[in-house]
Amino acid sequence: MSESLLQQLEQLELYLLKEEKDNAKNLVFRMITTHPEDDIGYFFMAYYYSVLRQKEEAIRWIDEAVQRAPEKEAALAIAAGLYYDFSLNDLKRNELVETGLRLYPDNHFFHGLHAQINEQTNKQAASIGFLSGDDPP
């Protein structure tokens, strides 16, 4: 790639900020067609759709990225982070975090995300118990 990934991301964000959706999408399609085996173009497309608030399309592209690099540390971290940040499919998010922890046990990001998920789950369980009349823990 002649442009750095950071430059491409900045260009994508600029297009999206200026609401030049066709230019943004074309930029990402060029990335994907130039390097179809790389996961990063698919993550850029997921980002594109997430900015447009099209969660189902964003999920589809995140999954495409992970298919290309199912055990790549960065791909798992990006995918798990996107699933968490966008409040997408909790089951898939947890699966990605567990895979990351299994393959990269020293990766602090996976441990941090796992802790956040557990904290969120505990809060939800406490809320449900409180609403059903149980005493909160």
Architecture overview:
By secondary structure, this protein is mainly α. The chain has one domain: Alpha Horseshoe (Serine Threonine Protein Phosphatase 5, Tetratricopeptide repeat). It is 76% helix and 0% strand. It has helices at residues 5-17, 21-34, 40-51, 55-68, 73-85, 90-103, 108-131. The longest helix has 24 residues, at 108-131.
* Content-based structural category: mainly alpha
Shape: globular
Number of domains: 1
What distance separates the N and C termini? 54 Å
Q: Report the major sheet.
A: none
Protein topology:
Elements: H1 5-17, H2 21-34, H3 40-51, H4 55-68, H5 73-85, H6 90-103, H7 108-131
Helix pairs in contact: 1-2, 2-3, 3-4, 4-5, 5-6, 5-7, 6-7
Main features:
137 residues; mainly alpha; Serine Threonine Protein Phosphatase 5, Tetratricopeptide repeat; 7 helices; 76% helix; 0% strand; globular; Tetratricopeptide repeat protein
Brief synopsis:
The chain is mainly α and 137 residues long. The protein has seven helices and no strands. The chain has one domain: Serine Threonine Protein Phosphatase 5, Tetratricopeptide repeat, CATH 1.25.40.
